Amino acid sequence: MKLGVLCSGGDSPGMNAAIRGAVLRGVDVHGFEMVGFMDGWRGFHEGDTVPLDRPAVRGISPLGGVMLGTSRVPPFPSRAGSREEWEAFAARFAEHGLDGLLLIGGNGTQTVAKMLADRGFPVVGLPKTIDNDLDGTDYTFGFDTAVSIASEAVDRLRTTGESHRRCMVLEVMGRDAGWIALHAGVAGGAQLVLIPEYPESIEQIAAWVAEVRDRGRSSLVVVAEGFRIAGHDSSAEPSEAVTRAGLDGFGRPRLGGIAEVLAPLIEELTGIETRATVLGHVQRGGSPTAFDRVLATRSGIAAADAALAGAWGTMAALQGNRIELIPLGDAVGRLKTVPHERYQEARLNFG
Questions:
Q1: pLDDT tens digit string along 51-101?
Q2: Which residues are catalytic?
Q3: Which of 65, 89, 165, 317 is most open to solvent, judged by the fewest CB atoms within 10 Å of its CB?
Q4: Mean pLDDT, to the nearest integer, of 288-315?
């Protein structure tokens, strides 16, 4: 059996460990031939491949980034794929001599995996995203590392904020789901966490910050990049909070900069000097945590085993402490967002 491994979307700590797990299981145990496509679907379209065997993946688990590269190049020029595009895809699949594909990615990649599975292509998904917003799995690899990096930033900003009696606003990633902000904020003891799922008014935010000041402390606010201020136009993209104009690879407006919007508003309403820090891509870089290395390795092993068993159209999901194969449709039907009770649990301690 010949398997192709392809990474798509944003990079995420742990992707190398997932590749290693799949290769060691697939090649050494099951006797597969495996190839990797460079830079995601670009490599698939252009025939840019590398052989994957034990020497190719030696020592890569602790490394950040991804050895194969990744990109937001789509599998089809049109989003759904025309008849001609599907025919061209099938011809390329046959040209590569593939018996199956292992697709490492987040919601967009697993949605593509389901599209391929629905058309009869043999695919297995491996769930990575620092946002942890993929349904059907308790955690995606990359999330724990991103939270650890953000939590360290909270700790560091707290000391300088307290020294100058400033309010510090830390912006972390999270377009539609606030898992990173919530976990980092709780871990770091932030006085306030703002996430996309639950808008808050600027008056309420300022009141919480003032309450912290009144008891002799300095506020640390953690905000996800997709947070919207209640009362503002929630139907429009927050273009005023975008640090770099334009669209990303999926045609969505680039986010980043809501902290720069919040900071002067908080200062204006409270009189407290307020500074903003945008953590940005620091959250994606560097070595993965031990948790992410183990989770990614187990996911890769499960994907190789799924290929051997012919369990195509599935994704290797963490449920409890077990890796289970779930239908791709269960993973991409909706985003996994922060439940109301989880937010309320934290909100009771704001201020």
A1: 999 999 999 999 999 999 998 888 998 878 888 999 999 999 999 999 999
A2: 131
A3: 165
A4: 98
Instruction: Check the annotation: does 200 bind a ligand.
Output: no
Q: Which DSSP helix (H) or strand (E) runs through 188?
A: helix 179-188
Residues 292 and 280 reside in one and the same domain: no
Residue 193 annotated as binding site = no
268/256: higher pLDDT: 268
Task: Give 188-210 pLDDT, tens digit per residue.
Answer: 999 999 999 999 999 999 999 99
pLDDT classification of 246: cutoffs 50, 70, 90: low
How many CB atoms within 10 Å of residue 214? 9
pLDDT of residue 253: 56
Cα(59)–Cα(61) distance, rounded to whole angstroms? 6
E strand or H helix at 158: helix 143-164
Q: What radius of gyration, in Å, describes the C-alpha atoms of the chain?
A: 22
84 marked as binding residue: no
58 is in an annotated binding site: no
DSSP 125-149: EEEB-TT--BTT-S--BTHHHHHHH
Query: d(Cα 169, Cα 219) in Å, to the nearest integer?
Result: 8
Residues written for the chain: 351
Beta strands in 174-273 (DSSP E): 192-194, 220-224
| Same domain membership, residue 169 and residue 271 | yes
188 domain residue, yes or no: yes
Overall number of domains in the chain:
2
